Amino acid sequence: MTPTHFTFSTAFILGLAGLAFHRTHLLSALLCLEGMMLSLFLALSLWTLELNATSFSASPMLLLAFSACEASAGLALLVATARTHGTDHLQSLNLLQC
């Protein structure tokens, strides 16, 4: 495993561990998701450059576009929950409450 592959896989695993273990605030969960997506984007970009594959050249841009859409939807949910519940704690977001 090269140092670049190790770096990207470590960044992804750290984002996944942060998402799994530190779920107190919605903003921290969104930041972990964004870190995971950025590490995937960089890894996919370098993979297409290493292989010199022109057929995969659009896939990093598609991944970046989807991650931007995910980030905007997550921030919209964060604003909506902060307005309705007054906090972004994930413990207060119970779907069974009205």
TrEMBL record:
Look up keyword Membrane and say if it applies: yes
- Its Enzyme Commission number? 7.1.1.2
Q: Which InterPro entries match?
A: NADH_UbQ_OxRdtase_chain4L/K, NUOK/Mnh_C1-like
| Gene Ontology molecular function terms on file | NADH dehydrogenase (ubiquinone) activity; oxidoreductase activity, acting on NAD(P)H
Q: What sections of the protein cross the membrane?
A: 6-22, 29-49, 61-82
Q: Which family does it belong to?
A: Belongs to the complex I subunit 4L family.
Q: What is this protein called?
A: NADH-ubiquinone oxidoreductase chain 4L
Protein species of origin: Boleophthalmus pectinirostris
